[in-house]
Design goal:
The protein is of the alpha+beta class. The chain is built from 27 helices and eleven strands. The longest helix is centred in the first third of the chain and has 35 residues.
Length: 776
């Protein structure tokens, strides 16, 4: 920022600073108005979100499912009434009469089609093996929202006791409805947990209650704005209800990260400006504040901008996948990241201008100090730890890498599956119904495969094709065909589990079986096969997109060729513990009793992709914070080792505090009763803590010590490219010595900390700065 007036200390106030500070009251009023409009625009968004989205809309199974829904509604029931006859059998006259009456009544309901039952068809698959339970099946028509409304209307009048029978409501539509309701309730509870705990932690970090409230305000603006964006998107595309959880988690977490970084740097710069140099008169209070804002935006502001872009890039990779479940997280994540950054870079500076030195007001920690002076808060312990790590760099690098790889080994045994009723609590009605069907009914009725046959065919051709299917080794039984015009379908029951390896092989065998007509296979196992193929087909492109754009952004920040490569590799390594824990806990079922979930024995196919994109983005978030401060110091000193020590000294505590706060938010999300949400919240919390406390604190300084000054190398053309287009936090001011912004003193003071184990300098300016920083 080369133009614009100057304040005291020679700090240039460029266009961006003038933009965000010229009319702070107007800026905050406009923000309040826009937030109020977002509340209105985003109201009712949860009711418009879907609970599906795991299928590839272009897959063969999706096509077959829609065709069967259209031509043969009874083949695709989404509503199941579990009829329990008590001590009598389901064939008892009184039970049969009541069941037939309920079946006829359901068939007459508006919005219901394809009604069938054991008592109408006599199909063995619809009768429990003990003879005391049987099923009434139907299809509720319409999209997810319409089907949910129909279920709300019907379920109360069918659920419960009807003469000699007891009815429970289940089926896919009931599972989806119950999942939406549960997620909505859990999200409200998570917010009630996260907000007060986060506020307490922020007060502990900042000391000042005023400063602690600022990050929460930024987070609330980001969350409400994203809800409005999602509400608008529902007019054009499907959006998953699970995206609401990411909105809350990232809205609070990233807003707090960005606000922590900016408020901390502002208070640091304000503390330095509190003691004028002997050659310069003391600036006015407003000049002091504007100068601190200018430096904060030039340094921490750029870091926030780069950080938000790296997180958004990781989340944008999910747009490459066809499943709207993943795309929904991209919509929500990109919106909340950009809104959080915008609020931190526009609204927060405006608030800081109005608050000025009052940002340090209401220091609640004074209540516990009892008059004792504040301890130095310049990060001496982090500086000493960085020095220790770099003295033993090979040991720390090898030990940390091996430890992370070992933690990730369980992921080698991952088994992929589909999301089903077991995502819900064990006591949820739709889960109970499906569990009764799995345990008590023959032939895995929920795992049948349907083969759609299209085109003119004779009865003999149908019979020959059926015989070929029946001869396949994984087939237990073939029913059908049921024909209508030039279309027909066969029901194929696989041996073993509904989505086991045998069932997936059977899908591929069915698709390769020759037929004199067009065929398409659907069913649970077919959906899984198609989902795995869609993920595998696009995963390399998504990984390449994340890697290439991240490499470019980090290069623009640092001007180094090696640092971007290190950042990508170390960030990926930091996620191993998360993936290992996901398999060990949620697939294998360890800690299921403690955490309160039912393990399906597999991991839903899209979850690892989602968790990688989110966790990688957050890891880069912390990586940018650390690297930007290291680069700033290296630009001023040219001392690689000292720059690494200084960077960790100045950001180690901040990154750890931000990670703990974000982990609290994610753990609150992880208290959800829906297993996928629990897995997402707890897994991301673990990844964030491992990244901040292990990778940033131990592995990064060790690796950068081993690479030495070569860390900053770049070939001539790339150096010139960076000089022209690169942006870094450490852009030097063209006028004034280093002492003007206190960096040289910070570096020397940091060295003194290493030698004297934290003794304070003798200058009055040091003590004044330490007192202010102790509150931050």
């Amino acid at each position: 920022m080369s133009g614009g007036p100057r304040t005291g200390h020679g700090v240039r106030v460029g266009g961006w600073t003038r933009f965000v500070t010229a009319r702070p009251r107007l800026s905050l009023f406009v923000a309040l108005l826009l937030t109020a409009l977002a509340v209105v625009a985003g109201s009712g968004v949860a009711d418009r979100l879907g609970s599906g989205g795991w299928q590839d809309p272009t897959a063969e199974s999706t096509y077959a499912t829609k065709a069967l829904e259209r031509e043969f509604p009874a083949s695709q029931p989404n509503l199941l009434l579990l009829v329990d006859s008590g001590r009598a059998t389901v064939d008892a006259p009184s039970v049969a009469a009541e069941a037939k009456r309920l079946t006829a009544r359901l068939a007459a309901e508006r919005g219901v089609t394809g009604v069938g039952s054991y008592w109408a068809s006599g199909a063995p698959a619809l009768k429990a093996k003990d003879g005391h339970e049987a099923l009434i099946a139907a299809r509720i028509t319409g999209d997810e929202k319409t089907a949910s409304e129909t279920l709300d209307r019907l379920a109360p009048s069918y659920r419960g006791t009807h003469g000699p029978v007891e009815i429970r409501v289940g089926g896919p539509v009931a599972v989806q409805h119950e999942m939406q309701t549960t997620i909505r309730e859990d999200l409200t509870r998570a917010e009630m947990i996260a907000l007060p705990v986060t506020l307490v932690l922020l007060v502990m970090v900042f000391g000042s209650a005023i400063a602690a409230l600022l990050p929460l305000g930024v987070g609330i603006v980001a969350i409400l704005g994203t809800n409005a964006v999602l509400r608008g998107l529902t007019e054009f595309t499907d959006v998953s209800v699970f995206a609401m959880n990411l909105t809350t988690a990232l809205g609070l977490g990233l807003a707090i990260d960005y606000a922590l970084f900016i408020v901390r740097r502002f208070r640091e710069e304000l503390a330095k400006g509190a003691v004028p140099s002997p050659s310069s008169p003391a600036p006015s209070s407003r000049e002091d504040v504007i100068g601190a804002i200018a430096t904060t935006l030039r340094t921490a502001g750029r870091t926030v901008l780069f950080s938000s872009l790296t997180v958004a890039v990781s989340l944008a990779a999910m747009l490459l996948f066809p499943q709207y479940f993943l795309r929904s997280f991209a919509y929500a994540g990109i919106a909340v990241v950009l809104l959080a950054a915008a609020a931190a870079l526009v609204l927060l500076p405006a608030a800081l201008v109005l608050l000025g030195h009052r940002v340090n007001s209401l220091d609640l920690r004074r209540l516990f100090r009892r008059g004792r002076p504040a301890a130095s808060a310049d990060g001496a312990a982090w500086g000493r730890m960085a020095a220790l790590v770099m003295r033993r760099a090979p040991v720390f690098a090898v030990a940390t890498t091996v430890g992370l790889i070992v933690l990730g080994l369980p992921f080698l045994g991952v088994k992929f599956g589909t999301a089903d009723d077991r995502q819900l609590p064990s006591g949820a009605e739709s889960h109970v119904v499906q569990q009764h069907i799995r345990d008590g009914f023959p032939g895995s009725p929920g795992g049948a495969l349907e083969v759609l046959a299209e085109g003119p065919a004779t009865e003999a051709q149908y019979t020959a094709y059926k015989d070929r299917i029946a001869a396949l080794p994984e087939v237990l039984r073939v029913d059908g065909p049921l024909a209508q015009g030039d279309s027909a379908y066969f029901t194929v029951l696989p041996k073993g589990e509904a989505v086991g390896d045998g069932a997936q092989r059977l899908v591929r065998e069915l698709r390769s079986t020759q037929a004199p007509f067009d065929t398409a296979v659907t069913g649970t196992a077919a959906v899984l096969v198609d989902s795995k193929h869609a993920i595998a087909d696009r995963l390399p492109w998504a990984a390449a997109f994340i890697a290439i754009v991240t490499l470019l952004l980090v290069f623009l920040l640092t001007g180094s060729v090696l640092i971007p490569i290190q950042a990508v590799l170390l960030n990926a390594l930091s996620l191993t513990a998360m993936f290992g824990a996901v398999v060990w806990v949620f697939q294998d079922g360890h800690l299921s009793g403690l955490l309160g979930f039912t393990s399906p024995g597999s991991i839903e196919t899209t979850l690892p992709v989602l968790m990688f994109c989110v966790a990688f983005g957050l890891s880069m978030d912390y990586g940018v914070f650390l690297l930007s401060r290291i680069k700033e110091e290296y630009d001023h000193t040219g001392d690689h080792r000292e720059a690494v020590r200084f960077g960790l000294q100045r950001t180690g505590g901040l990154i750890t505090a931000a990670a703990v706060i974000l982990a609290v938010v994610m753990v609150a999300i992880g208290t959800s009763r829906v297993t996928n949400t629990k897995m997402l919240g707890l897994g991301i919390a673990l990844a964030v803590l491992m990244d901040a406390m292990v990778v940033r604190s131990l592995l990064v300084p060790a690796v950068m010590r081993l690479t030495g000054r070569a860390t900053w190398w770049a070939p001539g053309p790339l150096r010139r490219f960076h000089d022209r287009f690169g942006l870094s936090e450490g852009e030097a001011e063209p006028d004034g010595p280093r002492q003007a912004d206190g960096r040289e003193h910070d570096r020397e003071h940091g060295r003194e900390d290493d030698r004297e184990h934290g003794k304070e300098g003798g200058r009055e300016g040091d003590r004044e700065r330490d007192k202010v920083e102790a509150r931050g």
